[in-house]
Design goal:
Elements (H helix, E strand, L loop, with lengths): L2 H45 L6 H22 L15 H35 L12 H29 L4
Protein backbone atom coordinates (compact mmCIF):
# COMPACT_ATOMS: atom_id res chain seq x y z
CA UNK A 1 0.00 0.00 0.00
CA UNK A 2 1.49 3.31 -1.02
CA UNK A 3 1.37 6.65 0.82
CA UNK A 4 -1.54 8.03 -1.20
CA UNK A 5 -3.69 5.01 -0.35
CA UNK A 6 -2.85 5.50 3.33
CA UNK A 7 -3.82 9.18 3.14
CA UNK A 8 -7.13 8.29 1.47
CA UNK A 9 -7.87 5.61 4.07
CA UNK A 10 -7.00 8.00 6.90
CA UNK A 11 -9.30 10.65 5.44
CA UNK A 12 -12.19 8.20 5.18
CA UNK A 13 -11.49 6.81 8.64
CA UNK A 14 -11.93 10.30 10.09
CA UNK A 15 -14.75 11.47 7.81
CA UNK A 16 -17.07 8.46 7.68
CA UNK A 17 -18.15 8.37 11.35
CA UNK A 18 -18.68 12.14 11.52
CA UNK A 19 -20.48 12.14 8.17
CA UNK A 20 -22.68 9.25 9.27
CA UNK A 21 -23.73 11.12 12.43
CA UNK A 22 -24.33 14.33 10.47
CA UNK A 23 -26.40 12.39 7.95
CA UNK A 24 -28.46 10.84 10.75
CA UNK A 25 -29.07 14.32 12.19
CA UNK A 26 -30.11 15.49 8.72
CA UNK A 27 -32.54 12.56 8.39
CA UNK A 28 -34.05 13.28 11.80
CA UNK A 29 -34.35 16.93 10.80
CA UNK A 30 -36.13 15.87 7.58
CA UNK A 31 -38.60 13.79 9.59
CA UNK A 32 -39.24 16.65 12.01
CA UNK A 33 -39.65 19.01 9.08
CA UNK A 34 -42.21 16.72 7.41
CA UNK A 35 -44.24 16.45 10.62
CA UNK A 36 -43.95 20.20 11.22
CA UNK A 37 -45.15 21.09 7.71
CA UNK A 38 -48.01 18.58 7.98
CA UNK A 39 -49.14 20.08 11.28
CA UNK A 40 -48.81 23.61 9.88
CA UNK A 41 -50.86 22.84 6.75
CA UNK A 42 -53.47 20.95 8.79
CA UNK A 43 -53.86 23.81 11.24
CA UNK A 44 -54.00 26.30 8.39
CA UNK A 45 -56.75 24.39 6.54
CA UNK A 46 -58.85 23.12 9.45
CA UNK A 47 -58.82 25.99 11.92
CA UNK A 48 -57.28 28.83 9.88
CA UNK A 49 -54.43 29.06 12.38
CA UNK A 50 -51.01 28.48 10.78
CA UNK A 51 -47.88 28.18 12.87
CA UNK A 52 -46.20 31.59 13.17
CA UNK A 53 -42.85 31.62 11.35
CA UNK A 54 -43.35 28.18 9.84
CA UNK A 55 -41.61 29.14 6.60
CA UNK A 56 -38.52 30.37 8.46
CA UNK A 57 -38.34 27.27 10.61
CA UNK A 58 -38.76 25.04 7.55
CA UNK A 59 -35.99 26.93 5.73
CA UNK A 60 -33.59 26.49 8.64
CA UNK A 61 -34.38 22.78 8.90
CA UNK A 62 -34.00 22.29 5.15
CA UNK A 63 -30.60 24.00 5.12
CA UNK A 64 -29.38 21.63 7.84
CA UNK A 65 -30.91 18.62 6.08
CA UNK A 66 -29.19 19.28 2.79
CA UNK A 67 -25.79 20.34 4.10
CA UNK A 68 -25.57 17.47 6.58
CA UNK A 69 -26.43 14.90 3.90
CA UNK A 70 -24.03 16.02 1.16
CA UNK A 71 -20.92 14.29 2.51
CA UNK A 72 -22.60 10.94 3.16
CA UNK A 73 -24.31 11.03 -0.22
CA UNK A 74 -20.92 11.58 -1.85
CA UNK A 75 -19.26 8.83 0.19
CA UNK A 76 -22.02 6.42 -0.85
CA UNK A 77 -21.83 7.70 -4.45
CA UNK A 78 -25.59 8.23 -4.32
CA UNK A 79 -25.64 11.29 -6.56
CA UNK A 80 -27.46 11.02 -9.88
CA UNK A 81 -25.02 10.03 -12.61
CA UNK A 82 -25.63 9.92 -16.34
CA UNK A 83 -22.68 8.09 -17.80
CA UNK A 84 -23.63 7.61 -21.44
CA UNK A 85 -20.42 9.32 -22.52
CA UNK A 86 -18.14 8.37 -19.62
CA UNK A 87 -18.98 4.64 -19.82
CA UNK A 88 -17.34 4.49 -23.25
CA UNK A 89 -14.05 6.00 -22.11
CA UNK A 90 -10.95 4.01 -21.23
CA UNK A 91 -10.02 3.58 -17.57
CA UNK A 92 -7.23 6.13 -17.91
CA UNK A 93 -9.52 8.67 -19.61
CA UNK A 94 -12.14 8.15 -16.89
CA UNK A 95 -9.47 8.78 -14.27
CA UNK A 96 -8.31 11.93 -16.04
CA UNK A 97 -11.88 13.19 -16.31
CA UNK A 98 -12.34 12.33 -12.62
CA UNK A 99 -9.22 14.30 -11.71
CA UNK A 100 -10.41 17.37 -13.62
CA UNK A 101 -13.99 17.26 -12.32
CA UNK A 102 -12.77 16.33 -8.84
CA UNK A 103 -10.44 19.30 -8.77
CA UNK A 104 -13.20 21.63 -9.97
CA UNK A 105 -15.72 20.23 -7.47
CA UNK A 106 -13.26 20.42 -4.57
CA UNK A 107 -12.14 23.94 -5.53
CA UNK A 108 -15.72 25.17 -5.83
CA UNK A 109 -16.72 23.57 -2.54
CA UNK A 110 -13.67 25.07 -0.85
CA UNK A 111 -14.62 28.55 -2.09
CA UNK A 112 -18.22 28.12 -0.94
CA UNK A 113 -17.07 26.88 2.47
CA UNK A 114 -14.64 29.77 2.86
CA UNK A 115 -17.35 32.30 1.99
CA UNK A 116 -19.84 30.61 4.34
CA UNK A 117 -17.25 30.81 7.11
CA UNK A 118 -16.77 34.53 6.44
CA UNK A 119 -20.53 35.02 6.27
CA UNK A 120 -20.96 33.63 9.82
CA UNK A 121 -18.98 36.54 11.24
CA UNK A 122 -20.64 39.13 9.03
CA UNK A 123 -24.21 38.19 9.98
CA UNK A 124 -23.25 37.74 13.63
CA UNK A 125 -21.69 41.20 13.72
CA UNK A 126 -24.75 42.90 12.21
CA UNK A 127 -27.08 40.72 14.31
CA UNK A 128 -28.95 39.34 11.29
CA UNK A 129 -32.16 37.64 12.44
CA UNK A 130 -35.13 36.01 10.73
CA UNK A 131 -37.91 38.40 9.83
CA UNK A 132 -40.84 36.89 11.78
CA UNK A 133 -39.44 35.00 14.77
CA UNK A 134 -36.26 37.10 15.13
CA UNK A 135 -34.08 33.98 15.38
CA UNK A 136 -30.34 34.72 14.94
CA UNK A 137 -29.22 33.29 11.60
CA UNK A 138 -25.53 32.79 12.27
CA UNK A 139 -25.88 29.43 14.12
CA UNK A 140 -27.66 27.95 11.10
CA UNK A 141 -25.03 29.29 8.72
CA UNK A 142 -22.39 27.76 11.02
CA UNK A 143 -24.16 24.38 10.81
CA UNK A 144 -24.35 24.62 7.02
CA UNK A 145 -20.64 25.52 6.98
CA UNK A 146 -19.88 22.41 9.05
CA UNK A 147 -21.76 20.29 6.51
CA UNK A 148 -19.76 21.86 3.70
CA UNK A 149 -16.47 21.25 5.53
CA UNK A 150 -17.33 17.55 5.65
CA UNK A 151 -18.30 17.68 1.98
CA UNK A 152 -14.93 19.27 1.12
CA UNK A 153 -13.03 16.48 2.87
CA UNK A 154 -14.99 13.83 0.96
CA UNK A 155 -14.45 15.60 -2.36
CA UNK A 156 -10.73 15.83 -1.59
CA UNK A 157 -10.60 12.09 -0.81
CA UNK A 158 -12.41 11.36 -4.10
CA UNK A 159 -9.97 13.60 -5.94
CA UNK A 160 -7.06 11.64 -4.45
CA UNK A 161 -8.76 8.38 -5.45
CA UNK A 162 -8.94 9.57 -9.06
CA UNK A 163 -5.24 10.46 -8.96
CA UNK A 164 -4.48 6.99 -7.62
CA UNK A 165 -6.68 5.44 -10.31
CA UNK A 166 -4.96 7.52 -13.01
CA UNK A 167 -1.56 6.33 -11.86
CA UNK A 168 -2.73 2.73 -12.31
CA UNK A 169 -2.03 1.75 -8.70
CA UNK A 170 -5.60 1.23 -7.53
Amino acid sequence: MNRLQKVIESLYKGIKPVSSVANAIGMVMMTVMMIFVTVDVTLRKLVSMPILGSIEITQFMLAICVSFGLAQCTIDKSHVVIDLFVARLTTRAKALLGIVTGMLAFGTCLLVTWQLFNYIFIIKEVNNVSSVLKIPMWPFVALVTFGFVLFCFVLFAHFLEYILEGSGEK
